[in-house]
Fold this protein.
Amino acid sequence: QVQLVQSGAEVKKPGASVRVSCKASGHTFTGHYLHWVRQAPGQGLEWMGWINPNSGATNIAQKFQGSVTMTWDTSLRTAYMELNRLKSDDTAVYYCATDYCSGDRCHYFFPSWGQGTLVTVSS
Amino acid sequence: DIVMTQSPDSLAVSLGERATISCKTSQSVLSSSNNKNYLSWYQQKPGQPPQLLVYWASTRESGVPDRFRGSGSGTDFTLTISSLQAEDVAVYYCQQYSTTPWTFGQGTKVVVK
């Protein structure tokens, strides 16, 4: 089982940027993609994109293209999600999650989640 | 994008009674190559991340009680809790992983009547 530990809560002003980290542990992490999902207060879940830790390739949902950057630090086994030009409606809990892999195939549902990072955007 | 519509938005069920949640997808999530439905279900309790309950529409995740059952195919799916327990009070979400972007339903809140 993969364990994911995220960085702490952040408070930012509109127009600023925020970087959330997600540290992965557990030998079964190899081969998984690392996904980011957000949840606005009292709202549902919204998939933002994934990063392939092996290659650094990313697939970012169209809504977030141009404002979200996803990176991976191999030495730290840590993923980062940076959100730029923050607006008040970016206030949300941001989760990292891994997908499900069996053999050499992976499928994009999420058995493992980080604890979540609350990002508050307020002037 | 595939739109996921859950019903009802909220459900009040007596302890020990059955709870049934519906999830409809705007297009089929059944794969013709492997005959699998790319549909999962999650439970989320306040202040916690979602927890995977069911994948491939009907396969229970390890450790999930057998009172949780997923069913359906194509565009119509159901999550059934056969005998509601107090610890099942939560919001339940369906998710499709057939076509990117992966999308979730709006959630169904289950409370005790």
